[in-house]
Amino acid sequence: MMRFVRVAAGVGAVGLTVALSAAGSSAASSGAAPARADIAIASKGHAGSTAPRHVVLRDLPSRGASHAWNHAPLLRSGAYSGSQLPRRAATGQKPGASSGPVPLVARTIVRQFDGIAQAAANCNCQPPDVNAAVGPSHIVESVNLDLAVYSKTGTLLTSTGLNTFLGTTDALSDPRVVYDPTWNRYAMSLTDITAVNGIASLWLAFSASSDPTGGWFIYKPGFTGGPFPAGELMDYPVLGMDADAFAVSTNNFAQPTAGNYTYNGSTVFSVAKARVYNGFGWSARTFGVPFGTAPAIVSDRPTQDTGRLYLLDADDAANVMHVYFMTNTSRSDTTALALKGDVAYSFAAPPRRVNQPGTTATLDPLDGRLVWAPSQLDSRLWFAHGVAIGSFPGVDFGYINVAAMTNTVQTAFHSSTSDDFNPSIAVERNGASVLAFVNWAYTDTAASIATRDAFDAQSGYTLTHKMGLNFSPVGSSTGQDRFGDYSSVSPDYFANGLCAGSNSAVVAQQYFAANGTWKTRIASVGFC
């Protein structure tokens, strides 16, 4: 059973939103439980929010409150990701990689520029959670505790600390920003690293127009009932969307004492765009899903009206991809989650940490989870994540054909001796075909190459790995042992110049400067 509350409020309501207690009537669980021992699809609890506070980004001061650290994603065991991986191993050469990748023609880096750097992230902390979204005239980047808006040529227009932006002293982490090409808005989600006795919560923000330097609606929904005890940490939120709603999945950890995390299941919920874009209060059902399940971002402009928002979970223990879908995502009274089925997929998570030239310090490639939202178009669900290629950290990308429930997968790597990690992917329609952009980072100690960023472009549904084009400088980190927790790809439906719309994307990734501090790199790339 689940409990939910419908919250009504006017657009003009002012004041910081507050978490809600469970109240109102009960409703029956929706969706049938799949035949799996570790998860049963059922309504778990509720999310609710009053009308938001309305802020104007351009009126905010440049910097706000800061914290000395940034939260790293947790494993199911409650340990930090990558902390249990071997720190160093013989490199050798990848199996089957002696001939190297096949180069792909007609890929272009239109422009690139440095984004938020460690010194400007409002916390001087590691690792960076780098991601960016592109709209008609702006690129919005959110990293750690900073939010920046650039022109599409790379001019910084405004920058603010996220604590100042949200009007809170909460410890924050994991910001993710996406662009909605149907409603012409930006959306952002953030982790709230809650106090032990606090109500489980996170933060959501939605631009009031296509101008991200203008007004935003700010929500702090509270989660009660089911698996949401006091002190619950809703970790590593992944932000997806369809034509009508946003979906957010989280891995949840009970926190009986400060810093003592116990995995308490994962959940997903959806909220109607029509409500958050107009500053209305809202409520939502929350559903149980496996650890690391990620909702998709449905592609196309306007966003394809599919009736189903798919979710993926990469399960290396069972060697399958679990495929779920949500329906009625904009209706809190009838939203449902169902298991589509499992697709065979034999892979292993990254086997060791990432080596760097010139130092014994190694980096964390995470644990094989989907670090960025899958990309949904037609009957395909595209994904990218970290895997093992023999004894090397590597990247898999590809798609699930949800109509046939088949899997098409290809590995990506820079060379036969590189360590490749931190990937993201997005697709867009290009005439009768599709274009897939894959973004990842790599090091190559055998070739003395420190952290570099690369992107690859695939046309159509026949996947062949090709060497990615570099779009960042290089550097090694000697004083830090973590890399970024995710990267991003954002289709650019309004590109102009060398690559027209439907041929372009904006990719965001991390690299290390010569002094070992991290920087972020944003590039407009195209298949043209």
Overall structural class, as computed from helix and strand content, comes to: mainly beta
Task: Outline the biggest β-sheet.
Answer: 11 strands, antiparallel
Low-confidence stretches: 1-40, 64-68
Number of continuous helical runs: 2
Helix content: under 10%
Choose one word for the global shape: globular
Summarize the structure.
With 528 residues, the chain is mostly beta strands.
Structure description:
- With 528 residues, the protein is mainly beta.
- The protein is 2% helix and 46% strand.
- Strands 3, 4, 10, 11, 12, 13, 14, 15, 16, 17 and 18 form an eleven-stranded antiparallel β-sheet that branches.
- The protein is globular.
- The relative contact order is 0.16.
